[in-house]
Amino acid sequence: MRRQLFMLGWLAAWLAAMLTYDYYARVENPEMQSRMELHRMMVTGSAPYQYRYRVLIPYAADALAHVLQRTPVLASQPEAGHLGYSHRAFTVSFGIFNFAAIALMLWAIGVLMTRLLTHELALFGVAASAVMMEFTFRNHTYQPWSFWEGAFFAVGLLLIQRRRYRAFSVLSVLALLNRETSVFLLIAFLAIEWPNGPGLRFAIGNVAVWIAGFFALHRIVGYAPATFFISTAIEGNRNNLLLSIWLNALLVGIALPLIWRGLQRAPQFYRRAALALPPYLALLLVIGYWWEIRYWITALPIIVPLIACALAPSDASPSR
Known about the structure:
By secondary structure, this protein is mostly helical. It has 16 helices and no strands.
């Protein structure tokens, strides 16, 4: 098992390195100046409402960039404004955070699939997750929390399965600081433990802490008028309807028969965790830009194992 986990980690790191560079080349570098300006607005508290309360990665990357700015290799003229570090330090800082999130997510997906399915299916799961993630590298704006949202979801499921409930509680707080849709990880926790699982009390307690933390975060950061409205999303989706249908069909739509078959064959853990996906997708249907298919990154820790279960040989069903 130790050798298998090591090889999964090596595979995850290799794929994450390629994905990190690909994301930089295709998404970050072409719009670097606008990304740096929006980042500056985030860390100075002047960003639009929808960016205001997702504080974890912007502040952490900002702190790392200040440290990198002092290193001889990366030291160069700081950018104008209030950043205090260079374009180079900003790029490397986010490269480190992106790589860490992608590698952690792929590794956690692989480890959990090894524990619940088979090592061979886990290898498929890591590779398939990387391929599907790469396809989401389009129509991105500055969304530094997207990879970490997927990482927190994958690691959270692994901690639930291993009954590391206290560690999960810490992770859930970090996930809240990353993005408010982390609440769906807690919904998955409740679904897995209901009605009499050993972690049910922890699941309920974490929901209560998350709700309190949500309002505390808004109070500490400071409330601001909404700058994003449902009508905005509806208009955007209407203008990009054909593109949205095409991208979502390619990424997930064609795989729906496999996902459905996998639901029938998967271990109970994955079937119950999948109950968090309908409300998550329902929320995005209302407020999300559906041509920004980065939203699917969060769902990969559940969708990919279901596809793997559908592909497993019939005489070796992983369901248990």
